[in-house]
Amino acid sequence: MTGRILVVDDMEPNVRVLRAKLEAEYYEVLTAMSGEEAIRAAREQQPALILLDVMMPIMDGFETCRRLKNDPITQHIPVVMVTALDQQKDRVDGLQAGADDFLSKPINDVALFARVRSLLRLNSVMDELRSRGASGRGSGGVPKLQTLPENSGGRVLIVEENQRFGQRVARKLGAPYQCKIVSDQRVAAELAAQGFDLLLINLATTEFDGLRLCARVRANETSRHLPILGMLNSDDKEHAARALDIGVNDILERPVEAGELRARVHTLLQRRFFTEQLRTSLDQSLELAFTDQLTGLFNRRHMDQKLEELCKRAQFEDEASVVMIADIDHFKRVNDTWGHQAGDQILHAIATQLKNSFRAIDIVCRFGGEEFVVLMPGADLASAKAAADRFRLNIEQTPFAIGQGMKPVHITISGGLARIHGSDKGNETLARADAALYHAKKKGRNRMVTATKQSAMKKAMGQN
Predict the structure, then answer these.
(1) Based on CB atoms within 10 Å of each CB, which residue in 77, 121, 332, 368 is the most buried?
(2) How far apart are CA 305 and CA 291, in angstroms?
(3) Phi, psi dihedrals of residue 201, rounded to the nearest 5°
(4) Which residues are catalytic?
């Protein structure tokens, strides 16, 4: 996986070395010589990953990272701090500033490219969610993501070779985390799909194959997004690289230090929290894109897509389907007499009646104004007409509330139905249903009329 990487270091030789290594692997490399320059480049160029030196004048790497993570434009970009510092306190400080990982100088190439590949995979998922969410809203903007509170905790599944070692790790992690310890990898794979927030696994043991467990967790649809933190000995670089390529999110060196353990766990849970926010935002965007906000029904945009799909099924699979278009009779009188708020209440109530009157597979849409469309896959015209008449009669017999202290009103509805023929386009079927609706209105309203092939032509010519 290629991508654009921003290298930040105030020492030109260090920049040249990293740039050469990355470009040899076909990554696009941007460079910055200071924290301020890095922040500006990150905002303007939106790199997929930032390799950030810690020891820089004026603004060090910790402060630069902190500012990047506090900016909604750059907070999603993974940051790897590159430093000669090898104290655990420095790593903890960096993680608390928002860094995703550390690389120690001199940089080991295996560790470097394993980290780069892992974090680029992460960022590609987040970028896709961000862009699709923005597209669904019809806007290029993405809201600022909320950070995970420090004391939020979570359910952690610890996979260790024996309970005593697992309990020691659990104590170091401490409250408010809730830990469950297992030593059987088959049991662990089953539990990983049951609502845990993080998998913490000892990859250094020979009692079970930790990498195989990680691969199994990633292959399971239910657990594939579960963050995985692997524990390994500090000198086992090749094992760590393989783990990252399989899908382990982060590596914690043994012996485990409590501060770094908590910091890395919180960082992984923060990433997951970001991703969940983006997925929720995407779901909401899609809902806004295809849902009528007043009635909660599908909107015309969604109707057009589904209608074309039914036309293709009629053409290639010879599957019968029916389109119904319905219109509230004399709806203008409702708005003129009782106001638009009363009209909105009636529209919402009719939408509820529509959803309750047709099958679960039928697609109920608000076409616009007081018009509704129901797409009935696999239905024949006779059964669709019977369902439409039941709905019409139900509307006729229902008193509709229009406000507190106001007398309910009675309304009627008219509709037209058309069968989708194999040669039809969506607008042709809709035109025949609309022509049948026109005839229902001309014949006195409060009725459902089925269309013929000539219906649309007759309407166009002004005939009954």
Answers:
(1) 77
(2) 13
(3) -130, 135
(4) 370
Residue 158's Cα: distance from chain center in Å?
A: 28
**From CA 50, how far away is CA 97, in angstroms rounded?**
14
Q: Name the stretches of the chain with pLDDT < 50.
A: 137-140, 455-457, 460-461, 463-464
Residue 182 belongs to what H/E stretch? Answer: strand 177-182
Handedness of CA 149, 117, 249, 59 (dihedral sign): negative
The span from the CA of 33 to the CA of 41, in Å, is 11
Question: If residue 415 lies in a helix (H) or strand (E), which one and from where to where?
Answer: strand 413-419
How many angstroms separate the first and last alpha carbons of the chain? 64
Cα of 217 vs its chain's centroid, Å: 20
Contacts of 402 (CB under 8 A, 6+ apart): 334, 338, 342, 345, 346, 408, 409
pLDDT tens, residue by residue, 354-364: 999 999 999 99
Task: Tell me the torsion sign for CA atoms 11, 13, 14, 16.
Answer: positive
β partners of residue 30: 6
Q: 17 CB contacts (<8 Å, ≥6 apart)?
A: none
Q: How far is CA 20 from CA 14, 15, 216, in A?
A: 10, 9, 36
